[in-house]
Amino acid sequence: MEIEKKYPLPPFTKATAREKVQLAEDAWNSQDPEKVSMAYTVDTEWRNRSQFINGREEVVAFLKEKWQKEKNYKLRKELWAFTDNKIAVRFEYEYQNAEGAWMRAYGNENWEFNAHGLMHKRYASINDLPIDETERRL
C-alpha cells in the first residue's frame, strides 16, 4: 500500500511554505469539498470559529454546507510564519450571504502537518464584516 503524500513536504522552507499556502488557496477557491479534504489527514482536527470538526468526512460535510450558504466565494491567503512542520496564514475572503448582502471575512489560521505533507490540525479564527458591493476587493 502506498503512503498518501501531499507535496511539498515538511520541513518547510520559505519557498515551500509559500507554495503550500498557494495550493491551499487554489483548492479552497475551487469550492470542491472532496478536493479540499484530500489535503488533510483522515483524522484531521479543526477549529473553525466556534465549531469543532474531526476527520475528512466532517470536513466534506462542513464545506458543502459552507459553500451552499456563501455564494460567490473568493479567498486570498498570505503566509504569515512557518517552522519545520507548521504554517500560519492570514486570509480574507468575500461572499454573498443568503440575503444577497456582501460580506468580507478576515482571519488567521494555524496549520500543523504530518511528515507526509497532510494537514493534521487547522485552527481558524475568523471575523465577518458587512461590505457594500462597491467595496469588494476580490
From TrEMBL:
SUPFAM superfamilies: NTF2-like (SSF54427). It comes from the Bacteria. PANTHER family: SLL0781 PROTEIN. This is Response regulator receiver domain-containing protein. The lineage of its organism: Bacteria, Pseudomonadati, Bacteroidota, Flavobacteriia, Flavobacteriales.
